């Protein structure tokens, strides 16, 4: 079992760091699933370990200058888990302008580690090497089935979300009112975000959104809603740092809010289970 990869493009390093930072807001531990062509970042639902809450896939050729791995079994894959906050902390230099290369490799230092090497330009020497060792837990092939691509249920409706910055600002204000957020979408392209407590109900309406798909497009009044934990939704909205062209919002009536980012180099899916009113 072997893995080593090197990123040299400054934009790729910053983008990789931004993705890790977003995941650090959404989960405590992440599973890295490595294949010859893809790098997967996966998190299980903390309240239900049988469900995946985050599924992110990076195209290794788009990020890595060098990428070498030898995996296990015929599928030639490696799976291991690690604390996402430690990975985010180790990559913090990726946002600096003097970072030349970012290297990652699996090492054995009394226990398995993901070693991060950051090659920085220095004013006092030709280079400065910063190394971090993150302890990892190797996942055996018999447990790999827990981290296979999730089956996404058929959505009742999907739209392009409004400005993520505006939504984040509004949701952050709504968090002060109540812990649960109702997200409603209809076939006319309207999104309603609502929160309430014993003394007040507050709704925010966005209109004219682009419809991606809808179960019954002939009935413009048909509304699909789900209620989610407002703090968890707010944490996802930190993806603003990725400078995205668009984010898709999907609703499965009463059951699921699914947010997805689909770029050429990577995709990221975030699943928020609906909660009872």
From TrEMBL:
Keywords of this entry: Nucleus
SUPFAM superfamilies: DNA clamp
Keyword Nucleus found: yes
Main location: nucleus
Any one GO biological process: telomere maintenance
Pfam families, per the entry: Hus1
Location of this chain's protein in the cell: Nucleus
Gene3D superfamilies in the cross-refs: 3.70.10.10
InterPro entries reported in the protein's UniProt record: DNA_clamp_sf (IPR046938), HUS1 (IPR016580), HUS1/Mec3 (IPR007150)
GO cellular component: checkpoint clamp complex; nucleolus; site of double-strand break
Family: Belongs to the HUS1 family.
Name of the protein in question: Checkpoint protein
């Amino acid at each position: 079992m072997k893995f080593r990869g090197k990123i040299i493009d400054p934009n790729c390093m910053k983008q990789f760091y931004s993705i890790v930072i977003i995941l650090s807001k959404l989960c405590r531990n992440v599973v890295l699933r490595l294949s010859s062509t893809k790098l997967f970042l996966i998190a299980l639902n903390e309240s239900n370990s049988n469900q995946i809450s985050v599924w992110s896939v990076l195209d290794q050729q788009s990020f890595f200058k060098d990428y070498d791995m030898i995996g296990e079994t015929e599928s030639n894959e490696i799976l291991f888990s690690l604390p996402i906050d430690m990975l985010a902390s180790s990559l913090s230099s990726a946002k600096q302008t003097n970072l030349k290369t970012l290297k990652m490799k699996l090492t054995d230092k009394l226990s398995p580690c993901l070693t991060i090497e950051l090659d920085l330009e220095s004013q006092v020497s030709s280079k400065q090497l910063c190394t971090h060792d993150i302890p990892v837990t190797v996942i055996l092939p018999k447990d790999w089935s827990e981290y296979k691509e999730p089956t996404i249920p058929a959505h009742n409706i999907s739209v392009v979300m409004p400005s993520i910055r505006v939504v984040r600002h509004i949701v952050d204000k709504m968090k002060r009112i109540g812990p649960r957020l109702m997200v409603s979408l209809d076939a006319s392209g309207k999104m309603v975000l609502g929160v309430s407590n014993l003394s007040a109900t507050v709704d925010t309406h966005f209109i004219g959104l682009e419809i991606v798909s809808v179960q019954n497009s002939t009935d413009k009044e048909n509304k699909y809603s789900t209620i989610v934990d407002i703090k968890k939704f707010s944490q996802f909205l930190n993806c603003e740092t990725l400078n995205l062209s668009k984010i898709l919002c999907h609703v499965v009536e009463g059951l699921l809010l699914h947010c997805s980012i689909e770029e050429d180099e990577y995709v990221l899916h975030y699943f928020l289970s609906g909660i009872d009113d």
